[in-house]
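Recap slide: Glycosyltransferase, sequence and predicted structure.
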Amino acid sequence: MGENSLKIVMYPWFAMGHLTAFLHISDKFAEKGHKIFFILPTKTQSKLDQFNLHPNLIKFIPITVPQVDGLPDGSETTADVPFPMYSLLRHAMDLTEPVIEGFLRELKPHFVFFDFTHWLPALARRLGIKSVHYCTISPASVAYLFRDEPAADAFLEPPPGFPPSAISLHKHEARGVDWINNIKEFGNGMKFVQRVLMAAEECDAMCFKSCNEMEGRFCEFLEKKFKKPMILAGPVLPEPPTSMLDEKWAKWLDQFKAKSVIFCSFGSEARLERDQFQELILGFELTGFPFLAALKPPIGAETVEEALPEGFKKRSAERGAVHGGWVQQQLILSHPSVGCFVTHCGWGSLSEAMVNECQLVLLPHVGDQPINARLMGGDLKVGVEVEKGDEDGLFTREGVMNVIRLVMEDGSEIGKEIRTKHAEWREFLLREGLESSYFDDFVHRLQRLLEH
């Protein structure tokens, strides 16, 4: 390792979206010669090995997830448990504090990167290590959502001093944020929002995967609020996959003309109610375009097949596929036949979509996703959001069809505008040297933190 190279411990929240986001940035550090120690649950390592592009510099440190009453045996990540059990998983991570302290004492890193383990900054400070809250959500989302409010209605509008923006929440979304914020954490009595605020207030710096050009104004707001550096790592684009698209999907997509296929994926966790699942795929059918939907089975169903509307499979056999398992999203998005991406607006999925040519249809579910949808659709104008009921949050098949046609067909003015804006942002994000210069500055700012 060089004289200025860093030693960094990564300890992300045990959710696949967080683990992969931390591993992507670990790859970028390793590319520049820095050493990473990546703590993760034992059985999860095999799922992440393929994304470790620098095994000589990124060392996985597997740990056993402690047993907690009520947490099913063998549970390691959020993929193993339903949402109401997430607080039990967070408590299990809290119980690892003595183990993490042992690792930090032994490894003596310059930094520890974390997200939900609110106790890490105090532990790191005692050991003379800098703690960095690496946020897997956008600066806009943190700026809007990280606040403890007395009632749900407060979330309908941004907090005081929030930069000018199209971002606000609908009533059903505000209720959802309020509910998540007020979940009582198992084992310590604090609310979830107190956990995330403590993590933000106690750390030495907060870091994001974003650019000043896109979200600089939200970072300025956060620097004033938390009185600490907000450091942007740039776009942190995933490396092009080294694998090929599965033959099954490559063959299926190859039969359709360029930019004609709708691809829909809602990430590893989102599950719709059965009636909304059916409205969504019936909306795809109504468009007349071919479609590939990679969706988890709806709530109450074991498989996607049992939840399909009557006669749907027969009617759409020639041009529609609904798949309940994992697919290679990055490779599908870049396939020439794909012209539209219907997304739940997870920050990772949007990053992948922004550097591809398919048009964006925004259908957010929970948490930070509505903020991302307003940022993309309202502020940046690179996608169009499907309309939902303000109170009940329900969408219709006609609503899905209309927005897809709007972005796919050449005649609409809105479609033209979002195609132009998306192309401009894509060109910017892929500009030669942009990512590298952002990351060099990111490392430089981290090194400056060590001087204080």
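The CA atoms of residues 90 and 414 lie 43 Å apart.
The chain has two domains: 7-237+432-449, 247-429.
(End of recap.)
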